[in-house]
Write a structure and sequence with these properties.
Elements: H1 3-29, H2 38-41, H3 45-76, H4 84-108, H5 116-142, H6 146-179, E1 181-187, H7 199-212, H8 217-224, E2 229-238, H9 251-261, E3 286-296, E4 303-310
Parallel strand pairs: 2-3
Antiparallel strand pairs: 1-4, 2-4
Helix pairs in contact: 1-5, 1-6, 3-4, 3-5, 4-5, 5-6, 7-9
Amino acid sequence: MSALETQSQWWLVALLVYFAGIFLLAMLRASKYLKSEPLKIAKNPEHALAQFQYKEQESNVLTGFALVAIIFIITFFKDDTYSIARELLLAFFSLAFVFEIISSLFYRMINRGIHGFLGSLFQYGGVLSMIMGFGTFMFQIMNWSFYLNSIYLVGLFAVTILICKGFLDQITNWEVITSTILKISIRGFTPKTFGTKDNIARKIELRDMIRSKIDNLADMQSKFRGKRLSINADFYLYDDPNDAGRSNKDLDNLLKILCDVLPEHMDRGRQQAGLGLIENDRDDLIFKINCKKEIVLEQSQEGIDIEISEYS
């Protein structure tokens, strides 16, 4: 086996180690990261979508670059009936071409819950494959000096470090975002409206139901108090054939009960404690509300989905 073939085998092994290593990094650092949906956890989904679309364009450009390189290799070696260098160059740039297409598809399917981490994984994999192809060209065909080869190796090392740092930054950003998001799902519960004499009793019922779903209420209070908040609320109303009023509820009155249980106190007399997520009963700290109601056909599906995060 020639030195070139041995070298290429090591580089192919390096690519496999890259993919396995980055996946292992994500699983060890944050196993739930790969299962999260990037547009749902983003503070600004429109901005996040625009970023993913830009990354898709980057992958498309890299795909075109790999294709041009493949055409150049075929033209450069057109007089050779067989060349190990040609085969290796074609292998590396073909892998890059495939990796970048896969990356582009992952970014395009971001609306379907495909994680952007996978797009980055294949995009950077394609870049590394192209760099290894350049290395084959430099070392075996151009026969450049030791100094130029050293510059290349230092650059390859720097790119590898930056890629790893980029993945770590993605995971770190995800940890920061998810640590300041409170998600609560309540089922088998009938959402109540505001406007009747038993408002306090209804607030207490909702407060206690939400409190039972939060394991770290004190931590959430310290993170949200004094902060500008964004609230997403989905109300699921049971279509009861024997009680039409159960599903015919005004969205604003459903939301009023929810917003009233979030501050330190739920009543004007400050006698009933709330969840304490809003400091000093300052409703003005709620900067954004997204809400909707849906009709469900099974009583077990009735309830509320609540998501509270810092507004940005």
